[in-house]
Amino acid sequence: MAQNEVLVLRCQNKECSRPIKIKRPAKSGIYPIACPHCSAKMRVRIPGMDAAPAPDVPDNSKAEPIAFSDTFIVNERYEVECPHCHAHKISFQSKVPGDKAFACPRCKGPLKAFVKQKTKPHASDSAQFISGKLVLLRKYLLNKDFPLREGRNIIGREDASAPSDISIKGDKTMSRRSVQIDMNTTENGYTFKLTVIKAVNPVIHNGSVLMNGESVSLNFGDTIVMGTTKFRFDRQN
């Protein structure tokens, strides 16, 4: 910043309103000034040489809306970076579910987000005397059964470097370790719980999207979608 930078102000006397040239002070503050034209006295806030220059802010108000790939949950507060200017953290929270449209307060870039209700615990029927299996539903081919074993069962895309207990071929949209199904034995029979481990694409249980870390109990007949692959949870005959 130039040492002898000159600022141009406007006289606050409405009958004068002529420009006043002053030397920028070293420090920002409120300074008394007398107009050299009409002698009106005034106090003016003047930015000094210690004031940081205002950053250039792009105007993205006419840009195409960008949709966040993440799914947000009702009443949860999030801090997200604006994908337009990459320079502003936006505080986002919605009290109602659905598609939301808003804009970055800094660059005005239009944004979209999908907000869902928090998954309600899926009440399991009474414990089953029959163990369970996953049925891979395939068009024009015979369905394929994957019996569950007692304890933990990891399901995901086939990958030799990170094998799952149940590995599925041919679906690149499924994560390598997508979900975990726990089959536990109680004195009343078997219980089943599905937990999303880490899924890049949504895991859908009976039409409801599950977030990473969410768990639901399973009943026979439930449908589970991982990537583009669809399963039915069924009794093991």
Major sheet strand order: 11-10-20-19-16-17
Beta content comes to: over 45%
Measure the end-to-end span: 81 Å
Number of helices: 0
Describe the overall structure.
- The protein has 237 residues and is mainly β.
- It is 0% helix and 45% strand.
- The protein has no helices and 20 strands.
- The strands form 6 sheets. A 6-stranded antiparallel sheet has the order 11-10-20-19-16-17, with no helix packed on it. A 5-stranded mixed sheet has the order 13-12-14-15-18, with no helix packed on it.
- The radius of gyration is 31 Å and the shape is rod-shaped.
- The mean pLDDT is 86.
Care to give the gist of this entry?
By secondary structure, this protein is mainly β. It is built from no helices and 20 strands. A six-stranded antiparallel β-sheet has the order 11-10-20-19-16-17, with no helix packed on it. Strands 13-12-14-15-18 form a five-stranded mixed β-sheet, with no helix packed on it.
